[in-house]
Fold this sequence. Notes:
The chain is α/β, with parallel strands linked by helices. The chain is built from 4 helices and 13 strands.
Amino acid sequence: MTSSDKTATYKPLNRDQMAWRAAQDLQEGAYVNLGIGMPTRAASYVPDGREVIFHSENGILGLGPKPEPGTEDENLIDAGKNYTTLIKGGVFMHHADAFLMIRGKHLDVSLLGAFEVSEAGDLANWTTEDPSFPPGVGGAMDLAVGAKEIRVIMDHTDKAGKPRILKKCRLPLTAPGCVKRIYTNLAVIDVTEQGLFVREMVEGMTLEQLQALTEPKLQLANNWQSLTPPAMAA
Length: 234
């Protein structure tokens, strides 16, 4: 299979596989904020033996993986109102102190969800402008400028199959030029001053197929590789 075979077939990643892939890039000792939604799943997929300290803006440092069914603790809730766990040494704090960590640039990475990302790394993730879907910026605008690096995890296209990686965002921005890496259900893409570089594509996908689902021009990284996550239930 080559990167230019237009007849290639492929299977998109499911949400847990996307979270797994994003978790593989988190470095030992990193302080990482997990945004509401899909990003919170990454806490369950950090490689064994690697310590990553997860932060939740509602006042947790040391967020753990999703609890096993039947072990949920009603006093352990993340920013997305989901049950979570606390690692050994983890702490609770006032909401304002959690934001001091963000605004003081103490977080190495923030993994956020998004509605749109532009080729310049502009982030739109607080409103769809749909009256039936209330907007909610939460801490995203603080994270977009406070975390040392912003990475996004999102579906490559919307429900109608239209690109969500655009030349220019159509929705109101959360922050300009902040996104450095995009994880989608089809690829891993780096945002650079030289353009968008595809680091990984799902097995069987071609660059032409990926380009057809992406508005700005994509470039294939010299060391690109196939994206092959472990099997996970959808």
